[in-house]
Design goal:
alpha+beta, 8-stranded mixed β-sheet, 4-stranded antiparallel β-sheet, 42% helix, globular, binds aspartic acid
Length: 366
């Protein structure tokens, strides 16, 4: 079109030679011009990210009786900083096209390595003064899952759970068998002393004293029902490929005995992920979460009853669990990137990136 106009103009005014030069020039630069127009129309990176494939990440650091009065500003800052560090690390993995499984494993590893949480390094003590750790992970794309329970020498149980999922034909390995499997796959074992922290040791001593007092008929200190219990960690993620994953890791409950295992390593109770519905990680008194099959129940309400993620999670955490006196909460993401974080306790350590890409860390009901 433009070429024809130039030719007509040149012929009319006897400018044939300059006209031909102009046409040749235009033909040469036309592809570059077109490309520039296209580039000019491309969205800036931030917008492209928002309008492109969705990716989301939510983490928790346990639910329980967590009140502002109990917490010093310094300790609160430590929690917030660590949650933020884990959140940002996981988010970067997803932003750089990493998988939801990689994000979940990495986030949980960071929290396991912190003494603040009841998982990995900061795990609570059993009645016998040992530490027994549980963890699980699930891939929403393949519905594959891996879990370990009552392991005593594994620094990062979430990574061992992933190994079980990827390198064994099984879903759940426990105790010594799980550690033999770990050694066979080159996982370094740590001595029990690695898990010693004064705070958790003191919590055990208090629990043992309360137990003794109550069996002697003496009234135990007013019960802080969650003391020594909260601090389990979990993560749910949706990656750019639309794949969901969930993981949970815990030291269980203070003063547990007889090989007690809670919901965290039980697929369907403490952890569940399914690309058709959602990814869920739970925290709370495990016995109730096992009996209510919490994580799978939320997914089932979405799949079979057509509920939204928020309604399904509220139904289970705010209606069904309280009826049986089950305390705790969940974090969840659905396949479309919606998130839900209901809890029926006074607090739940939790963090997520909001729709504008801003990190949000919360502890109390606010
Ligand atoms: N659910 C964990 C357990 O029962 C504890 C917790 O989440 O606080 O082992």
């Amino acid at each position: 079109m433009l070429v024809r106009e130039i030719l007509r103009f040149c012929v009319l005014r006897d400018y044939e030679l300059p006209g031909i030069v102009l046409i040749l020039l235009f033909t040469a630069i036309e592809p570059a011009l077109r490309q520039n127009v296209a580039l000019g129309q491309a969205a800036p990176p931030a917008q492209a990210e928002r309008s492109g494939a969705k990716f989301r990440l939510v983490i928790h650091g346990g639910a329980g009786t967590i009140s502002r009065g109990q917490m010093s500003p310094e300790l609160e800052k430590e929690y917030r900083d660590k949650l933020l560090e884990a959140l940002k690390t996981g988010y970067e993995i997803l932003r750089n096209d990493g998988s939801s499984l990689d994000a979940v494993e990495r986030v949980i590893t960071i929290l396991e390595d912190s003494p603040l949480f009841n998982a990995g390094k900061g795990s609570v003590f059993t009645h016998e003064g040992t530490n027994e750790l549980d963890a699980s992970i699930m891939d929403g794309k393949t519905l594959k899952a891996g879990s370990v329970a009552a392991v005593k020498h594994i620094k990062n149980p979430i990574s061992l759970a992933r190994l079980v999922m990827e390198k064994s034909p099984h879903v759940m390995l426990v105790g010594e068998g799980a550690e033999t499997f770990a050694k066979a796959h080159g996982v370094e074992l740590v001595p029990q002393g690695y898990f010693y922290t004064q705070k958790r040791w003191d919590q055990l001593q208090k629990a043992l004293k309360d137990e003794k007092d109550s069996s002697a008929g003496r009234k135990a200190q007013p019960a802080d029902t969650s003391e020594g219990k909260h601090g389990t960690v979990g993560c749910v993620a949706l990656d750019k490929g639309g794949n969901l994953a969930a993981g949970t890791s815990t030291g269980g409950t203070t003063n547990k005995r007889f090989g007690r295992v809670g919901d965290s390593p039980i697929i369907g109770a403490g952890t569940y992920a399914n690309n058709l519905t959602c990814a869920v990680s739970a925290t709370g008194t495990g016995e109730f979460f096992i009996r209510s099959v919490v994580a799978h129940d939320i997914s089932a309400l979405m799949e079979y009853a057509g509920m939204s993620l928020q309604n399904a999670a509220d139904k289970v955490v705010m209606e069904k669990l309280p009826k049986m006196a089950g305390d705790g909460g969940v974090i969840a993401i659905d396949k479309d990137g919606n998130i839900a974080m209901p809890f029926n306790t006074t607090g739940m350590y939790r963090a997520y990136i909001d729709a504008d890409g801003k990190p949000v860390v919360k502890i109390y009901k606010e």
